Amino acid sequence: MTAVPIVRSLLESDLYKFTMWQALLHQHPGAKAEYRFHCRNRPAYPLSELKEDVERELDALCSMSFAPDELDYLGGLRYIKSDFVDFLSLFRFQRRFLDVGVEGESLTIRARGPMVHVMGFEIFVLYIVNELYFRRLVTDRDAVLEEGRRRLAAKIARVNERLPGLSRHFPFEFSDFGLRRRFSAAWHDEVLATLARALPDAFKGTSSVYQAKQLGVIPIGTMAHEYLQAHQAFGTRLRDFQRAALENWVQEYRGDLGIALTDVVGMDAFLADFDLYFAKLFDGLRHDSGDPFVWGDKAIAHYGKLRINPLTKRLVFSDALTIDSSLALYEHFADRIQTGFGIGTHLTNDVGLKPLNIVMKLVSCNDQTVAKLSDSAGKTLCEDETFLAYLRQVFNHYDH
C-alpha cells in the first residue's frame, strides 16, 4: 500500500508565502534565488537518515497542482489579484530545482532557480522533514498525543485564568504560526479545531492557508525576511534596500497587509528607514528577534516621535512565543498599542519531545549574497563573511 503524501494541498503553506510570491511575480519575475535548509540544534538521530523519505515526499509535492476550489478561495482574498491566481492555476513545482543530499550526518537541501519557482518550497520542506523525523522517533504515538492534549488543555486554562485579571484597552488575540515545525498534520488539525472551539474570542486564525480554508478562520500573514533580503540584490543602493522593499509592498497592496517586518538588519536600522511616510502607510510592525519588551518600547517611542498616536497602530510578536510570554507582553503593552501574537512551535509541537529547530533560508538572489543581521544571537545565516562585514558596516550593526 502506497503511503499517503504528507503534503495534502499546495494551499498548505503560510499565507506570507503567497503574498510575497505575488509581489515578486509582479515586480521581479526574472529574479533567481537559492535557499538552503539548516538545522540549528542537535536532533535525536541523524537527519541524513531521512534522505530517501524526503526525496519521495518532494517527488509527490512536484506532482501536485492547485484545485479549482483552492484557486477560488485565494481569489476571494481581496489582496490576491486575478493574474496571480491564473499563474497558480498553471503552476507546478519543478523537482529539477531541488538538490537533496547528505554531508556527514546532516541532511542538505538546496532550492536553486527562478525565485518565483523556488521560493514556495520552504514551508513544505520544513514540515515534511518534521513529520518524517517524529514518525521515526516516536514509538508510542498515543502516549505522545495524550501528553500534547494535556499541555494544550493547560494552555487554554491559562488563558481563561489570566485574562479576566488583565483587562486592557485592547483585547488579547493570538494566531497559530506553527505550520513549519508541527509534530504532524493530524495533530495540527486537532490543535486548531480545539483552539477555535475553546477560545473563540482570543484565537484569531492561522498562517496555514489550507487549514484556514478548512476551518473557516482567518489566514494570517504579510511578509517574511526573504522579501526584504531579496531587495539587497535588486539594484538599489544597499543602504536603501529596506525603503525599496517597503515602497514596493505599498505599491502592490495599496493599504492591505500592513504589518512590516523590522529585524532584517536590526530594529534601530529599521526605524531609521521607517519615516513618517511609512509609519502612516503601514498598520504596524512585527517582532521576530531580540528582546520583545525593548523592541516594543522603541516602536511606541518612534510613533510618538513622529506624532502618531500608538493606539492606532499594532505590534505583532512572533519570536519563540509561549502562552505565558504572550500574556506577559500583552500586559506590558495593551494599554498603549494594539497587539497580536503569532505562536508557533509552542502550539503545534509541544508534546513532550524536543522540537527540531530547522529553517530554510534565502542565501543568494541574482547570484549575489543576501543576509539578515538578527537582533538575536545565532539567527544570522550567511557564509560570505565579507558581505556580512559590509552589511554590518553599512547599517552599523554588530552582534549583540
Q: Could you explain the architecture of this structure?
A:
The structure is a single chain. This protein has 400 residues and is an alpha/beta fold. The protein has two domains: 15-138 and 356-371, Alpha-Beta Barrel (nicotinate phosphoribosyltransferase), CATH 3.20.140; 142-348, nicotinate phosphoribosyltransferase. The chain contains 17 helices and twelve strands. The strands form two sheets. Strands 6-5-4-10-9-8-7 form a seven-stranded parallel sheet. Helix 2 (51-61) packs across helix 6 (121-137), helix 3 (68-75) packs antiparallel against helix 4 (82-90) and helix 7 packs parallel to helix 8 (185-198). Residues 11-130 form the Nicotinate phosphoribosyltransferase N-terminal domain.
Give a nutshell description of this structure:
By secondary structure, the protein is of the alpha/beta class. The protein contains 17 helices and twelve strands.
Strand order of the largest sheet: 6-5-4-10-9-8-7
- Return the average pLDDT rounded to an integer: 95
Strand content: 5-15%
**What proportion of the residues is helical, as a percent range?**
40-55%
Enzyme class: ligase
Organism: Paludibacterium paludis
EC number: 6.3.4.21
Catalytic activity: 5-phospho-alpha-D-ribose 1-diphosphate + nicotinate + ATP + H2O = nicotinate beta-D-ribonucleotide + ADP + phosphate + diphosphate
Labels describing this entry:
ligase; nicotinate phosphoribosyltransferase; seven-stranded parallel β-sheet; 400 residues; single chain; alpha/beta; five-stranded antiparallel β-sheet; 2 domains; 44% helix
